[in-house]
Design goal:
Blueprint: E1 5-8, E2 11-14, E3 20-22, E4 32-35, H1 48-53, E5 58-61, E6 72-74, H2 78-89, E7 98-103, H3 108-121, E8 126-129, E9 133-135, E10 140-142, H4 150-162, E11 167-171, H5 174-178, E12 189-192, H6 200-203, H7 206-218, E13 226-230, H8 234-240, E14 247-251, E15 257-264, E16 269-275, E17 278-284, H9 289-304, H10 309-315, E18 327-331, E19 336-340, H11 345-357, E20 363-367, H12 377-388, E21 391-394, H13 404-419, E22 423-426, H14 430-440, E23 446-450, E24 457-460, E25 463-466, H15 469-477, E26 486-487
């Protein structure tokens, strides 16, 4: 094992000569193992020579009969190998943590934030990996992917262990499951928020999408605490039938943990939570029925991790705002502006329903759709926009390699199917579109900007262009006409 790596019937064995694992040749350092992954647009095997020049001591890939100056291991799946190698190199850190994985179409990030907050309220040290921020003990790190690639994920889990953390909460996307990024992450609890249409460009059908989500729950081991499932969600109930471990359900209509909204305002709710083991009422400072579902997921998880109901009850009023999720901006004599990440048909519908409840005047919607994603949902989102908003301005999201005008036109077709008069126009400059809506909206109106949430960049044909929806809105609200300033409700 001169190279420091050996493949056995029991898995990979790594010696002291191995200093790291990478799937990007640019990350290779002397002593690293390079795993070449064939991608949708770029094949990692093209960069094997570069990896060796940078000091790779071994290469793993899917091609056969390669002659290299370093040991080469041909495998059926490079992604599966990368996950196992990464876990082995970092000594399987999830085994030393109480690990929670949260998946679902909508609500994942909020649930991750709130489970983390409830665990910390109980006195435990908890790390967090989310689509917004990662907290591993080495400070706060901005996320690049909802679920990191396996070498990064295993490194972050090891960082948590090295900093004395006892718990980890991970946001897990369907891509992360399908691409084996979370293989060899041993979960104690797996949480499912809901399943609605999303990523059909990748999965092809809803059946495939549900099957991919189900894998996370089917893999729960015999020592796992169990699965936390939304009992009111149609597709989540399908996943429930495939789980062999203990299951804990929640919902407003069904479930072991049942929620009831006693009173609600545009900004908060008073919620009653009932469980066979406890019952209490709590003030919940987040708007919308969908957020009550997210709360129930977090509370059920926390309780089954052993956190006392009284600790949970006291912590609920202090659950943090999540950046880019119903982020509210308000200035005197100006419309309310809300920045939200909603980027699926169901997410857009829930956001619009919530904004309608909290708005006395008209609802303005500024949104687009991401390029390279499920094209079939675009007219559907247009129909939802026309049904629930008063005024719609279409703009770009992150078009990637698509023509932003064609994306907007596809959404516009859906709007015109319902009520074409709702479409105020198409402005492909997102900055100008946001400014246009704010300048036209009245003081009692609300401008909802959806699709990107806290993201700081748009992607145009591989080029990242800096743009923050919140910053554009804040600057508009701070214009010289109204120097009173911006009330940063919900901004963290």
């Amino acid at each position: 094992m001169a190279s420091g790596i050996q493949r056995t019937d029991r898995g990979w064995v790594l010696g002291n000569a191995v200093k790291g694992v990478a799937i990007d040749s640019r990350m290779i350092r002397p002593g690293y193992v390079f795993v070449a992954i064939p991608g949708a647009t770029v094949d990692g095997h093209q960069f094997i020579d570069d990896a060796i020049q940078r000091g790779a001591v071994a290469v793993v890939g899917e091609r056969t009969n390669l002659s290299l100056p370093v040991p080469y291991f041909a495998v059926p799946s490079s992604r599966e190998a990368a996950a196992e190698l990464s876990a082995a190199f970092y000594r399987f850190p999830s085994r030393e943590l109480t690990t929670v994985g949260v998946t679902g179409t909508n609500g994942k990030t909020s649930v991750v934030y709130w489970i983390t907050a409830l665990i910390r309220a109980s006195g435990h040290s908890c790390g967090m990996i989310s689509s917004v921020i990662n907290e591993t003990g080495d400070g706060r790190e901005e996320s690049l992917l909802t679920t990191p690639e396996s070498p990064d994920l295993q490194r972050q889990l090891r960082e948590m262990v090295s900093h004395g953390m006892t718990h980890a909460v991970i946001e897990i996307s369907s891509h992360g499951i399908a691409q084996h990024r979370v293989d060899h992450v041993e979960l104690d609890v797996a949480v499912l928020t809901n399943i609605t249409r999303e990523h059909l460009d990748f999965h092809g059908t809803m059946e495939n999408y549900v099957a991919t989500k189900s894998l996370l729950f089917e893999r729960l081991g015999p020592s796992a605490v169990g699965a936390v499932i939304n009992a009111d969600d149609y597709y989540s109930r399908q996943v429930l039938s495939r789980i062999r471990s203990a299951t804990f359900t929640y919902g407003l209509e069904n479930g072991e943990l049942r929620g009831r909204i006693l009173t609600s305002t545009p900004w908060s709710s008073e919620v009653e939570l009932n469980h066979p083991d406890f019952s209490f009422v709590a003030e919940f400072n987040h708007p919308g029925v969908y957020n009550v579902y997210n709360l129930l997921a977090a509370v059920s998880t926390a309780y089954h991790l052993g956190i006392a109901p009284e600790v949970i009850r006291r912590a609920i009023p202090r659950l943090p705002k999540v950046p880019g999720r119903m982020q509210i901006l308000k200035a005197a004599k100006r419309p309310t502006v809300i920045i939200d990440y909603a980027h699926t048909p169901d997410g857009l519908m829930q956001s619009l329903k919530t904004v309608r409840m909290m708005t006395n005047g008209a609802v303005w919607l500024v949104f687009g759709a991401r390029g390279g994603r499920d094209r079939g949902k675009r007219p559907e989102m247009g129909q939802i926009a026309a049904a629930l908003a008063d005024h719609v301005i279409l703009t770009t999201d992150s078009p990637n390699d698509e023509d932003p005008g064609e994306i907007a036109d596809a959404i516009a077709k859906g709007i015109r199917m319902v009520d074409g008069s709702k479409l105020r126009g198409i402005e492909l400059s997102r900055e100008k579109a946001i400014q246009w809506a704010i300048s036209e909206a009245a003081e009692d109106d609300c401008v909802l900007v959806t699709g990107r949430g806290p993201e700081g960049y748009q992607n145009f044909h591989g080029k990242r262009v800096a743009l923050s929806d919140a910053e554009v809105a804040q600057n508009m609200l701070r214009d010289t006409l109204y120097p009173e300033g911006v009330d940063g409700v919900g901004i963290h």
